[in-house]
Amino acid sequence: MTSIGSMRGEAAVSQRTTKSVYEAIVRGIQTGRWLPGGKLPSVREMGELMQVNRLTALKAYRQLAEEGLVEAKYKSGYYVHKHDSKAGVSPQEEQWDYPARSLYVNRSRLSDIHRQQVDFQMSEALIDPNLLPNAYLSNYVKQVFDLYPRVLSTYSTVLGDAELREELAGFFMAQHGISVRPDELLITTGSQQAIDLVSRALAKPGDKALIERPTYSPAIDAFQQQGITLLPVAITPEGYDLDEVERLMKAERPRLFYMNPTFQNPTGYTVPAEQRKRLVELAERYQCLLVEDDVYHDIYFGSPPPPPLFFYDTEGYVLYIRSFSKYVAPGLRISVLAARPALMDAIAPVKALSDNGTPLLNQKIFQHYFFSKRLQEHVAKLRTALELRKAVMENQLSHTGWEWASPDGGLNLWVRLPDDIPVEELLRRALSQSIAFVPGSICDPLGGMNDRIRLSYSYLNETNLAEGIRRLIAIAEEIRAEH
Amino acid sequence: MTSIGSMRGEAAVSQRTTKSVYEAIVRGIQTGRWLPGGKLPSVREMGELMQVNRLTALKAYRQLAEEGLVEAKYKSGYYVHKHDSKAGVSPQEEQWDYPARSLYVNRSRLSDIHRQQVDFQMSEALIDPNLLPNAYLSNYVKQVFDLYPRVLSTYSTVLGDAELREELAGFFMAQHGISVRPDELLITTGSQQAIDLVSRALAKPGDKALIERPTYSPAIDAFQQQGITLLPVAITPEGYDLDEVERLMKAERPRLFYMNPTFQNPTGYTVPAEQRKRLVELAERYQCLLVEDDVYHDIYFGSPPPPPLFFYDTEGYVLYIRSFSKYVAPGLRISVLAARPALMDAIAPVKALSDNGTPLLNQKIFQHYFFSKRLQEHVAKLRTALELRKAVMENQLSHTGWEWASPDGGLNLWVRLPDDIPVEELLRRALSQSIAFVPGSICDPLGGMNDRIRLSYSYLNETNLAEGIRRLIAIAEEIRAEH
């Protein structure tokens, strides 16, 4: 369990690193970050981006050029080969090659992994249904129908049920001292939808956005799908390098910064309170919106996390996404997006077009459970159960030489594997033995981080978690023995 | 009750028609159809589009030029004035002028109308909750929890619950003899979401799409929001002019044709069976997807409507949107989109990004009610009740001189008002007297049709419906008397 920031030293600049750069470029081309015929970053820039020396970056470019994926132009640099994207595509297939298709590389990769029925599910950051109050909630639902006999024959308004938004406004005041009006709250169908709405409403193709590296991978797709250029900001156990954030805001004038600063997915890191305040100041100075995705706020193991960035915001630069249903009743899919009126005016119409409002039934069930005493008891128990599962996973991993920073909350460990265990090989074999995890490259907007994996400890019970990790380690040892 | 196609004759080319052209252009500029600095259609083209003579179109352009909204360029034509969109916008406001904002004109106009609490609600095509099986359904929901105790702690897959899709595939075979596999079905949160997904997945900015004139107004916004140019196709009680459709497909190569061919919203017209077959052939010939929105299929008053276009499709050119929850439990928000694999491959990832899948609970409630005998009984009763309400509305309107073609199904009358009753004035006064309806211009992709209104007969009971229409007629008489 060491700080990850310092791990990549000179010794790591090896053939393996050339491969990382190579893969990052391929991925960037696949995801549409760099378009056919477009100019690639210079060798120097790529070296800086990937934190490798220039020679390593150059080697990767040369290899790509040899394979015909990129073209070197004399005195100009490297370009994406123009006919590459159509290679091997028949006219019939080309006809169906719709714009969105190729832009969901991360998401579809992730779906492919999640889709597999495995015994040891450590890829989805989903809470074990056994830890949720299913029976209690089912009874509650019956009360909802008694209270609102017409809940099934009524549409919600676009912003969401007025009663629920009023109660949530009260909750934000009570929990965080944040003053927010009900009409500054929008109920969304899960936080995924909130991210999608923000990307559609607040940025246009060609805009730039800062994003954590690594990050929640579907967010990468959501922003890229809008034609937004992503500029990565490294997140470490200490938070961000704020000088770098300021430099980027000043030089690149990004429209927004998508962040997950509390028990971050996938790393579990938390941006400290003093950085939060300064980030809000920077956002105001450079007119960069902060999209704060706060899905794990209540899943802390020690003391509660620092207040959301939204707490420090006075000028309306923070959009705050909070999800609750995840750890109560994920099937309900209820999240809330808080935004000041000028922004809400832009977002609400996109919500209207998307689905005309989240189903009322789900909002009413959520409301009545969420504001019950029972919920607080449940969440307290859930924290204890998850902390225990984390300890089980960490205990199993403790003698492997795998490295991670132990998180104070959330559902995941972000683990660095030793150089001699290739992640893709590990994943392939693990899946064939009914074990699933997320390869780190999916979480990297640059498509690198090929030595990291995300392990979720929230779904399996303690026995299966220990067994799953034991088996995963055995596979890794097997690979090591073979090479 | 006359055919509407023949109503606009020479006599109508009056000052009022100039105003229609004027308003259509203003609306086109507001909605982003024509961008600042962009060239407007020629006087001749505009005359053809609006079915007025050139002099009338010219008058409208001259008036707009006088007011500084458009610019005449010598020997070149008319252009949208460049600084118009920013006029009066302070730098602060401009900063917040996000791309999506101005593109939802129809939708937000409609929302403004729907938002008003009125006693005589004839603007929303929503079924009276008293006609829905609320109590029965509430009991049903309890069974769902007994059957699926973990329904609240489970996510749906992106495509939707496998069991539900299997049953729906069986339903399509049983009802229409359509063979569709469960993996060719996607469950969406209402048909609004299906339209939004299609517009995002299957067309890109600059693409063209055919759309009925008039049409379901949020569809106009959904496609325009994607930067798609809309080409209107008139719908009449006889269907479309197929020669015109073919001419447009051939000349303009539209990516898709969004249509609502059965008891169309807002007109209630139904495209006849023989046209359906030919439309599918045209779609194949010109590789134009047909997006068939079939929300009112089961709400027929005489014999069932012709089979969906989807029934005739063998080559995968039809995407079929079917909504059921509307007339069972609108609060559930369950629709289904059927598309062949090549198209589904493009749509499913957009659904994943949008919300990761429609909530499972809603799907399970819907499934268990929808496939019960009880549903068929309910729908049969509902048809009778709605037909009666339609008759009440038509009876009240029968001596007004207002004109409409009596629909064989659906929830709306599409009414032409006499020239001396300005719709906007009627709406303003109606709303102030707690009566709501939809002005026709909202349903027109060209923003014209200023003499039409849509009256929904589905929400009010017979007494209130008769009273609402009586009062509306009284307001119209009042206006006429004043002018």
Write down the CATH topology of the largest domain in chain A: Aspartate Aminotransferase, domain 2
Using a beta-carbon cutoff below 8 angstroms, give the protein chain pair with the largest interface and the number of residues from each chain.
A-B, 72 and 72 residues
How many strands, what sense, and barrel or not for the largest sheet of chain A?
Answer: 7 strands, mixed
Q: Determine Rg of chain A (CA atoms, Å).
A: 23 Å
CATH architectural grouping of the largest domain in chain A: 3-Layer(aba) Sandwich
Helix content of chain A: 40-55%
Name the overall outline of chain A.
globular
pLDDT < 50 runs, ≥5 residues of chain A? 1-14, 84-104
Mean pLDDT reading of chain A:
87
Comma- or semicolon-separated keywords:
homodimer, 483 residues, alpha/beta, Arc Repressor Mutant, subunit A, Aspartate Aminotransferase, domain 1, Aspartate Aminotransferase, domain 2, 3 domains, 7-stranded mixed sheet, 3-stranded antiparallel sheet, 14 strands, 44% helix, disordered N terminus, transcription regulation (chains A, B)
